[in-house]
Design goal:
CATH architecture of the largest domain: Beta Barrel
Radius of gyration: 22 Å
Number of domains: 2
Order of helices and strands: EHEEEEEEEEHEEHHHHEEEEEE
Distance between the termini: 39 Å
Mean pLDDT: 79
Helix content: 10-25%
Structural class: alpha+beta
CATH topology of the largest domain: Thrombin, subunit H
Number of strands: 17
Number of helices: 6
Oligomer: single chain
Strand content: 35-45%
Largest sheet: 9 strands, antiparallel
CATH superfamily of the largest domain: predicted glycosyltransferase like domains
Length: 304
């Protein structure tokens, strides 16, 4: 990924937006609605640039009225493989004014393919080209559910280890009374699918719960413990006996201190959910659109 900062190269920002306007390139503008947990998305184009005030004016492609909530917006331009985040200045009917973003991010092929996969799953019309390496599957309630990633390289020793069942890890004694045998076996099986970072491979014998990376495309089903929101299936980021991490597109989706039910992995469900408490929410990629929720496993919600 290549990044251009506004403070260092404003002239290139002028040139970039002028070219978008001249070519009338389609822009996908979106915002995550926190109440519905769905994306508000519009096809748009640039109709004016104010270089003195460093603002850009956009219109919807079909004259549809913008219905964004207050807050930042995200922008994706497929033709230039670019993404950025910007602040709204004003919105009226099908007119939108935004400030120049602080930075423009030019994606590499794999990063761009991930973005294509997200929008293709929501509505294939949002992008012109079909993603080559990543796959997501539509979900009527949530808009999409992540179900795939980069194509697996079966020549890779780590993949062979995963496909063959991996290393069987003995569960800590804390799980013996907290999980029944079915759930212990399911958890142990998921732990066997992980691959360790190089540093953790070296120090694995000295760690009680080494950090672990599951294969691309692994999913986890979670729900906030008060069940105030529906359960959702999310991409699994990391897993160990001590904790779990999953990916979201809204940094406010989960908050530190919340107790979360871990209900299952992929299509396999626990008889009774595991408990985990949110310890951190941080950016998971340089694009600033994915966030990793880090959780610590607990055996009883009162431990939170």
């Amino acid at each position: 990924m290549r990044t251009i900062n506004l403070i260092n190269d404003i002239a290139q920002f002028h040139e970039y937006f002028s070219e978008l306007k001249e070519k009338q390139n389609t822009i996908v503008i979106w915002q995550l609605d926190k109440l519905s947990n769905k994306r508000i998305i519009y096809h748009s184009f640039i109709n004016d640039i104010q270089e003195d005030s460093t603002t850009v004016s956009c219109n919807t492609s079909n004259d549809e009225t913008y219905q964004f909530n207050p807050g930042d917006l995200f922008f994706y331009i497929e033709t230039t493989m670019t993404i950025f985040k910007s602040e709204q200045v004003s919105t009226q009917n099908n007119f939108l004014s935004i400030k120049y973003p602080e930075e423009l991010k030019f994606l590499d092929e794999m990063e761009d393919d991930k973005i294509k996969a997200v929008f293709s799953a929501i509505n294939p019309s949002y992008v012109k080209e079909t993603p080559k390496y990543h796959t997501l599957e539509s979900d009527k309630e949530k808009g999409y559910t992540f179900v795939g990633g980069e194509k697996a390289d079966k020549e890779n020793p780590d993949w062979e280890r995963v496909e063959g069942g991996g290393r069987k890890e003995k569960l800590n004694s804390m799980w013996e009374g907290a999980l029944n045998q079915h759930d212990q076996d399911l958890f142990a099986e998921e732990l066997s699918f992980i691959t360790l970072d190089e540093e953790d491979k070296i120090y694995e014998g000295q760690r009680t719960a080494p950090r672990a990376k599951p294969p691309e495309g692994k999913l986890v089903t979670v729900q906030i413990s008060d069940e105030s929101r529906p359960q959702e299936t999310l991409p699994l980021h990391d897993l160990s006996q001590g904790g779990i991490g999953f990916l979201v597109f809204n940094k406010d989706a989960y908050n530190s201190g919340e107790v979360i039910y871990i209900k299952g992995f992929d299509t396999k469900k626990f008889d009774s959910p595991m408990f985990a408490v949110v310890r951190s929410v941080r950016e998971a990629d340089e694009m600033g659109i994915q966030f990793k929720v880090g959780l610590q496993f607990i055996t009883d919600p009162s431990q939170a």
